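**Tokenised fold:**
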Amino acid sequence: MEWVRSLNNAIEYIEENLCQEFTCADVANSVFLSGFHFQRVFSRMTGLTVSEYVRNRRISLAGAELQARESKVIDVAMKYCYETPESFAKAFKRFHGVTPMQAKRKGVPLKYFARLTIKIVMEGGDVMNYRIVDKGIFTVVAKTREFVDETSAIEIPKFWNEYFAKGYHKKVCGAIGICCAAEEGKSSWKYGIGAEDTPKFVKDIPEGFEKIQVPAYTWAIFTCVGAMPDAIQNTWKRIYSEWLPQAEYEMIQDYDIEYYTEGNTQSPDYVSEIWIPVRKKSQM
């Protein structure tokens, strides 16, 4: 239940501070998580980045306030942390479809974005196929790039397309996507495409590739069946919402790996894997 409890506490922090400036790191610190892992869990559980959630809540509440009270647009803009009336008006129209001044008229329809509450919902007994494996230190040869949470969902697939378009897979099989935990204080994090450093997968190491040494860990390895990217994304959500809250293991905040097999990634039978480092939960 730790992830669910932490996310709900984080949402409570956000709601209490919507009229104040804060960063994602502030939210993560409030629930004693690294900013990197908090953002990844939040987006996988909710389908939103932290900043998207904050923006949507602020502009939603701003719309309700403009309609319900005789508030000045500039005062509402400042209250919800917009630096200028112009930036507020632009964001407001993008969300609501009308300008702030139009929103003050009675009968003008606005959109409402409700506060999130994270719950575990027990549904039919769907099976999650996983195995627990102890693996020693190993090395991944990868082409890496820095990403930020806001744009990673768009930019990482582009990175994969570029990897194959440039023919890197002919020298280093593109079997692994490895995510490296962000360094303390950094908003960006490193993601690499490549393969385990064995002759079977690495024929030559192109310029610009690097070797990532992955520590010895116990890994929970989940099998995903289905077309990409939905199969991987759905499995990630189930790991956080179903498996981790009830498992005897907790996730170690370090590397995680997505492993891709050969085949048609759009086939309903395509098989991939998610690897997360874990340890046994301490007994209270």
